[in-house]
Each structure stands twice: as C-alpha cells, then as structure tokens.
Design goal:
The structure holds two protein chains of two kinds. Chain A is mostly helical. Helix content of chain A is 77%, strand content 0%. Chain A contains 14 helices and no strands. Chain B contains 15 helices and two strands. The chains are: A mainly alpha, B mainly alpha. Chains A and B meet through helix 1, helix 4, helix 5, helix 6 and helix 11 of A and helix 1, helix 5, helix 6, helix 7 and helix 8 of B.
Chain lengths: 291, 300
C-alpha cells in the first residue's frame, strides 16, 4: 500500500514538473506573440508579459504590407525547394552507386567523402572560391557549397546497403539496367530515408544564416533569416542605448514590429512541424545509430 | 570479367557519380587549396599564386594577438560550460518521460520540448532580445514589478554568459531528451519487473537500472562533445552576442568572420581557421580513440 502511494506521488510530481517545464518552454513564444499584438505605451512601461495589452494588429499590418518581407518569404520557399531537390538528386546519385558492393573504386570514393567530414578548408578559402567562381551575391552561392552533406550521404548508403541483395540480383536477371533498378525498386523502398533526409536538408537551408550573411548583398536575394536579422539587429543597438542612458527612446513600435517579424518568420516552421517531427525523431535515431 | 564487360554492366553507376564527385572536388577539396593563404601575404589582386610567401610569419602574429587568445578561451569556455549546464536537463526529462504512463501527455510534452531545436538562431536571437530585454522584456518586467532593479541580461558580460547558457539549455534539451529516450527503450523491461518484485521502489529502480542502462549513451555523448571542444557554431554566438559583451562572446568562428571578411585580413583569418581545423581534427581523433578504448570495457 505504501509502495502504491509513493508511486502515485511520484507520478503526480512527474506530471507537475513536466507541465511546468513545457509551459516554461512555450513562455518565450507566448511573450513574443503578446508583444506583437500590444500597443506602444504598455510595451514601454513594461506591462506586457504573456497577454496582449491594448490589443492591436498594427504591427502585423506593417509586416504584411512590407513588400520586401513578403518577397523574402517567397524567395526563401523557392530557395529551399530548389536546394532540397538538388541535394537529394546528388545524394541519391552518389549514394546508390556507393552502396553497390561490386563497384570498383567504391572504397576510394568513400574515402574522398569521409575525409571531408574531418577536415575542411575553412570559411575564408571557401569564400575566396565562391568569389573566384563569380557566384557571390547569387542563389548558387548558397545552394552549391552545401550540395551534399557527407553525413547524410552515409546514412543513405547504409540504408541502401540494408536492402536485400536478392532484390538487386533478381532485377539484374530480369535485364533491368542500373538506372531502372534505382528508379523502380530502390527509391520506392527508400521513402522513409528520402523523406527524412529531404527534411534535414530543407530545415537546414531554411534556418541557414552564416553563409547568407557572407555571400548575399542584394536585398532582393535576402533569405528570410538574413532579412529577419537585419530587422532584429536594430533592436540590439536600441537596447544597448537604453540600458546605458536609461533614457526613453521615442520609437517604441520597434519592439512590436520586431516581435511581429519574428512570429512571421516562425509560423511557417511551426505549421509544418507536426508532420516533420516524426521524421526528425526517426532521423535522429538513424544518425545516432550510425554515428 | 574483362574490362569491356565490366564497363558495359556498370557504366551507368559511374555516370551517376560524375557530378557528385565533381561537387566534392570543387567545393570541398577546392578550398583546401586555399589554405596556403595562411602562408602568404594574401592580396586579392595578386590572387593566391601571385601573393608573396611568408611562411609562418602570420602564425607568429596571430599567436601574439590578445584577441586571438580571448577568442580561443571563449570558445573552450563556452563549450565546456555548455556541456556542464546542458547535460542534466535532457537526462532528467527523459527519465521522467520514460516513467510516464499517460501516452498523450508524453507525446505532447516531447513535441513542445523539441520545438526550440527547430527554429533558427536568428529567430531565437529575436526572442532572446525581447524576453531578456532591459526595458520591456518579460523577465525584467516581472523583476521590476516586485520591486527589484532590472538585470542587464544581455549587456553585462557575466549576466550575458548565464543567459547564453540558459538559452542553450532551452534550445537543446528537447533533442537530448529524444536521444536518451531512444536509449531507454533499449533497456530490458524484465529488469524492471524483477526489481519491483524484489521490492524496489521507483527511485531505487531508476538509480539501479535506468541510469546504468544509460551509462554508455552518456559516455558516448560526452566523448563526442569533448571531441568538438574547439569547434563552435557561428550563428549562436554571433546573434546572441554583441559589442558590449564581446570579451565573452567573441569565439573563434566570429573572430575569423570579423577579422577575415569584415576587416579583409584574409591571411590572419585563414591562419585561425587552419589552427581550428587541425586542433579540431586532433581532438576528434583523440575522442574517437578514447571511445574505442572505453567501448571495449563498458558497453556491448
């Protein structure tokens, strides 16, 4: 009886702790939504925490009417699709041959790939290369350099290796070419891995920042994170000024404007997240097992 | 099999690998050619070949810079503190989630906890600057409303460090939880049953079965983290750091960016990049070696 009480107490504590933790985890988002929907006065006087005060949609109206934000959003969607498609094509094109054990030169090619996982030129040589190829300030500067992720490639090769050889052999007996085998047998069987890797590539590109910072100068080509950074950066300076002088800054709509922009940039990910989550969890497991 | 026969059978595979291998050659090995910039007085107009060879002179100069040592120290310090601070939470949460019987709550918690890992550091930066802001930030609102003075979370270096680490926990706890939960499903359930028959309560079972079962996962994760001690991402310190706290927030990656791309001192930046790559390689190889040694003893 005592054991059961102790057990129930433990369960209750677990639920309480987890509830508090998840609420704390969500709090920052809730705060930002509140700020984005509040008016300038209450924001300045520090009255806005988790609920909007003096509700207004002004900040969002500004964001949605900003052509450069909208353009950046659509550009980033297109960029992500282009990137993901290219990466997957290349990863499959290299992954399938590398999984065929009878291929001569396979080990050499694998070595070429694996070495790049442990050593690289560094960002300056990479920048010089992109510049020399005249790719600076173009979409290709942020698509080509990361075209194949060696780690994901290895995941693909491992997965294809696990497909029973008998399938490959019977296809060969039936006179199927390698191309055909790849398209009609291997790929359909690989859908989980293809979905997972596509999502890894896509989310990586969507959230990517450093390379866009380095390579993109034209505002028309600003991917969403870079555009968002330009907006948020001002607030850093403003906040610094405030804490040093303690003076009131007259332009306070910046806070709600920035908050609205952040939420604007976050919503797409949150929308697709429930579907993505399953693949990412599986993918992490795949990676953990291989790594 | 003759060469001709072999190629007739396999030419398609070779056709497939041409472009991907070209990618590796150009974009992965190509930059390695550029490493020699570290040994030359690099000038854009003269290019790599035209620039004068200066040997290790740039290395001497970099290793004499105070800023370099600050960046190095910060890199190691931030990584090390991150490891300590971010370590317990996922473990703790995974154990709690594992013990939970209510499936919907379990799944909901996991889903929520994992969200911060999905969003970009730029977005996190935006959130951080609002939540921890001195004037209108949520936390300082709370603090000032109960009568205390606002805390400069982002503009004073010690407070900034704490904020930086806490944000790290928030961002990574969910991901770590998933890894540990996956490891937990590998523990033999019969061990738990046997223990409870023997009269062991919840806490005893956790201590004697759950934790030892996670030992190998913990060790592996620890070793991977130690192997990456000198590598540090760019986005997080760059976005969350700022001029006021540069003494703590400037790390090797931001140093290279600032000195190389913003100031145009390509040679020095390449030196630091090369230093980081070589030392990083040594760390990783050392970690792998250690892991192999330990794996023989403790796991499998």
């Amino acid at each position: 009886m005592k054991e059961q009480n102790a057990s129930r107490w433990f369960d209750r504590m677990t639920v309480i702790i987890l509830t508090i933790t998840t609420l704390l985890c969500l709090a920052p988002f809730v705060h930002l939504v509140a700020i984005s929907l509040s008016s300038a006065g209450p924001i300045t006087s520090g009255k806005v925490s988790l609920i909007p005060v003096d509700f207004t949609l002004e900040a969002y109206a500004k964001v949605f009417s900003d052509a450069s934000m909208i353009r950046s959003m659509f550009f980033t969607i297109g960029l992500t699709l282009l990137f993901t498609a290219s990466c997957m094509l290349m990863t499959i094109a290299l992954g399938y041959p590398l999984s065929r054990k009878k291929l001569k030169g396979r080990k050499m090619m694998m070595l070429v790939v694996v070495i790049t996982m442990f050593f690289s030129g560094g960002i300056i040589p990479e920048y010089i290369l992109v510049r020399n190829l005249n790719l600076l300030d173009t979409v290709w500067a942020i698509v080509l350099p990361g075209l194949i992720n060696p780690f994901y490639l290895i995941i693909m090769v491992s997965f294809l290796n696990n497909i029973p050889e008998s399938l490959e052999e019977s296809a060969e007996i039936d006179g199927s070419s390698h191309f055909r085998t790849l398209l009609s047998i291997m790929l359909p069987l690989s859908l989980p891995v293809l979905a997972t890797l596509s999502l890894f590539y896509a989310v990586g590109r969507w959230n990517g920042f450093q390379d866009t910072l380095m390579y993109i100068n034209s505002p028309e080509l600003y991917p969403l994170q870079l555009k968002l950074y330009q907006m948020v950066q001002n607030s850093m300076i403003t906040d610094l000024l405030k804490s040093e002088g303690g003076q009131r800054n007259m332009l306070l709509v910046p806070e709600s404007l920035k908050a609205a922009s952040v939420i604007f940039a976050t919503v797409p990910i949150l929308l697709v997240y429930p579907w993505l989550q399953r693949f990412f969890v599986n993918g992490v497991m795949l990676g953990a097992v291989k790594g | 099999m003759s060469f001709k026969n072999y190629m007739t059978r396999y030419w398609q595979l070779y056709a497939l690998v041409v472009l991907p291998l070209a990618y590796f050659l150009i974009f992965r090995y190509g930059p390695m050619y550029g490493i020699q910039i570290a040994f030359k007085d690099f000038n854009f107009f003269q290019g790599i070949l035209g620039s004068k060879w200066i040997g290790f002179e740039a290395f001497r100069e970099v290793f004499g810079m105070r800023d370099f040592y600050l960046a190095l120290r910060n890199t190691l310090m931030l990584n090390f503190l991150d490891l300590i601070v971010s370590f317990p939470a996922p473990l703790f949460l995974a154990i709690l989630l594992y013990e939970l019987k209510v499936v919907w709550f379990k799944r909901l918690s996991q889903t929520v906890l994992y969200i911060p890992h999905f969003i970009s550091w730029v977005i996190i930066g935006g959130i951080v600057y609002q939540v921890f802001g001195t004037q209108s930030g949520m936390i300082n609102n709370l603090i000032t409303s109960i009568g205390f003075e606002a805390i400069p979370f982002l503009t004073s270096k010690h407070e900034w460090l704490a904020t930086y680490l806490m944000v790290g926990v928030w961002q990574s706890a969910g991901w770590g939880t998933i890894i540990y939960l996956a490891a937990l499903t590998g523990i033999n359930k019969e061990l738990f049953e046997a223990a409870s028959i023997d009269g062991a309560g919840r806490l005893k079972r956790i201590w004697h079965i759950t934790l030892p079962g996670l030992k190998s996962t913990i060790v592996v994760l620890l070793i991977i983290n130690l192997g990456n001690m000198i590598t540090i991402g760019f986005d997080r310190p760059y976005v969350i750091g700022n001029l006021a706290v540069r003494e703590y927030s400037d790390v090797l990656s931001t140093f290279v960016y600032r000195v190389g791309l913003q100031s145009g001192q390509y040679t020095m930046a390449t030196v630091v990049g090369l230093f980081q790559a070589v030392v990083g390689l040594i760390f990783v190889l050392g970690a792998n070696y250690t892991s192999k040694k330990l794996t023989d003893e403790s796991i499998l």
